Amino acid sequence: MDAAVYLRQSVDKYGDELAISRQREDCLKLCEKRGWTPREYVDNDKSATKGRRPAYETMLDDIRAGHIGAVVVWDLDRLHRRPIELEHFIDLADQKNLALASVGGDADLSTDNGRLFARIKGAVARAEIERKSARQKRAARQRAEAGIWWIGPRPFGYTESGGLVAAEAAALREAYSAILANASLYSIAAHWNSVGIKTAKGNRWTGRSVKQTMLRPRHAGLRFYRDEILGKADWPAIVPEEMWRAAHDLLTDPSRRIRWSGRKHLLTGIARCGKCGAAVGTGAKARAGRVVYTCKHCHGISRLQAEVDNWVSWRVANALAQPDAWRALMSTDSEHAAEWREQEAALRSRLDVLATDFADGVLTSSQLRTATERIKRQLAKVESQLYGPDPHRYFGDVLDTDDPRVAFNKLSLDRKRELIEAMVTVTIMPIGHGGRKVFDPLMVEILPHNGVICGGP
Predict the structure, then answer these.
(1) Starting at the edge strand that comes first in sequence, how are the strands of the sheet with 281-282 ordered?
(2) Which SS3 state, helix, strand or coil, does residue 245 take?
(3) Of the residues 115, 195, 199, 312, which has the fewest C-beta atoms closer than 10 A?
């Protein structure tokens, strides 16, 4: 009879599978004694209380299919640590007349006493888990209250001893600034992946992992346990507390819209076809590997992607340098727009003054937070009048710089796409031939919103 030898180790810190090897040796001896043919199912470094156990699930599938007649484990707690799983296993064992043997003794699940024994073992295992969890949580909180550096895997941005990893700390500072300028989490993840920045465990970044990392209070030099901040820490802060709190509020705001276009090119899905009005996409790579914008609805246009992108970027960048560029981002036209814009600029200037006063020691952290929250509430009302309810229409980080053209060119792809979509309507016209050697500006119609004039012919 084929017997499933199920081997599991919750934590394999060094990846040597020593516990698995010990279990295997004893379980194979038991199979030999019973005359069973062993088939191994190994879940190494897998907890039985959380997450998936792929080998265990495969074993259950083989039992249901009738390939397995017995299960051998080193101890019953290797098989189950949760009573609900045990009950499901008992039902399956009853249906398939399954034998269950452990190195410490058999558990006949076909009898009342056998099931009682298995359930008692399961209850004891569960109680042990809960006691261990309570001890670990209390110890973790005690360490946090005492200001003891993080015990566990190295956190991103820091060394194992609590010093700064310069490259990671710099990346985090840029990320906090980008988030406060309405960049998306996914654009930060894409940028980090493109320049070879890995997580502390050496994995690629996702929008979710970036968010989880940026929410950590340790980056502001704060001691914490779970979601509770306990006070100032001795390790160095990567960003000022006020910057971290502002980013935290933004990232945890339930109204925050998750923005991820998944686009690789500037105008995909934004530009329109001048023949049928459909949104353009990209065609197959052609002409020595160059990408073309094409209409997949009517196939009436085909333009080189790089040439169109360069032209539109130049026109929009020049438009941003115009004094009234902010009008293009307005949701509605109003006679009070200029007044609201002045109020907006004044409030943002006051925020800058507050930051300077805090840096100079004029304001305390509490005073800064109170004043900042009050001004931000006023600013939100003004911006809702100017730009409507969508906060991502605000591009003050570009418009209010010394040279908006330079600021635009430094934006991430998704931020450039948002700004272009908010500011102009781009239509690729069905004239001429996409393969001509000299780019003709008449191939691309750029119509500004709210009367703002884009630079260029």
Answers:
(1) 281-282, 292-294, 302-304
(2) helix
(3) 195
- ∠ CA 306-311-312, nearest 5°, is 100
Strand partners, 282: 293
Cβ-based neighbours of 257, under 8 Å, separated by 6 or more = 390, 392
- The structure tokens listed for 421 are 């979509």
Q: Is 293 helix (H, G, I), strand (E, B) or coil?
A: strand
| Backbone φ and ψ of 222, nearest 5° | -115, 140
Task: In whole angstroms, give the CA distance from residue 323 to residue 325.
Answer: 6
Report whether 61 contacts 39 (CB < 8 A): no
**pLDDT tens digits along 102-149:** 886 666 665 666 676 666 665 665 566 566 656 655 655 665 566 665
Tokens of 386: 């100017």
Instruction: Indicate the pTM of the whole model.
Output: 0.45
pLDDT digits (tens, 9 = 90+) for 392-435: 456 766 877 788 899 888 888 888 888 888 888 999 998 655 45
SS3 of residue 51 by DSSP: coil
Using the structure block, give the residue that is written with the tokens 């690789």. 264
Q: Is 97 left (phi over 0), alpha (psi -120 to 50) or beta?
A: left
Bridge partner residues of 425 (DSSP): 447
Task: Write the DSSP symbol of residue 156.
Answer: T
Please state, as a whole number, how many other Cβ atoms lie within 10 Å of the Cβ of residue 105: 9
Q: Which of 457, 438, 435, 437 is nearest to 446 (CA)?
A: 457
Task: Taking the CA atoms of 155, 156, 159 and 164 in sequence, report the sign of the dihedral they define.
Answer: negative
Token digits for 211?
Answer: 């968010």
Tokens representing residue 397 in the block: 């980080």
For residue 161, give every residue at least 6 positions away whose Cβ sits within 8 Å of its Cβ, in sequence order, or none. 149
Q: In whole angstroms, how far apart are CA 397 and each of 56, 251, 266, 406?
A: 53, 18, 20, 11
CA atoms of 198 and 165, how far apart (whole Å): 12
Query: pLDDT by residue (tens digit) across 231-264?
Result: 677 788 898 887 888 888 888 876 555 454 557 7
Is 256 strand, coil or helix?
Answer: coil
> Look-up: residue for tokens 């004891």?
124
Angle value at C-alpha 445, between 441 and 449, nearest 5 degrees: 135
What is the rounded CA–CA span in Å between residue 37 and residue 39? 7
Within 189-280, strands assigned E span 222-225, 228-232, 272-273
Radius of gyration from C-alpha coordinates of the chain? 31
- CA–CA distance, 372 with 412 (Å, rounded to integer): 27
Distance (Å, whole) CA 444 – CA 448: 13
How far apart are the C-alpha atoms of 415 and 178, rounded to whole Å?
10
Look at residues 69, 83, 82, 12 and name the one whose alpha carbon lies nearest to residue 42.
12
Dihedral angle of Cα 248, 249, 250, 251, to the nearest 10 degrees:
50
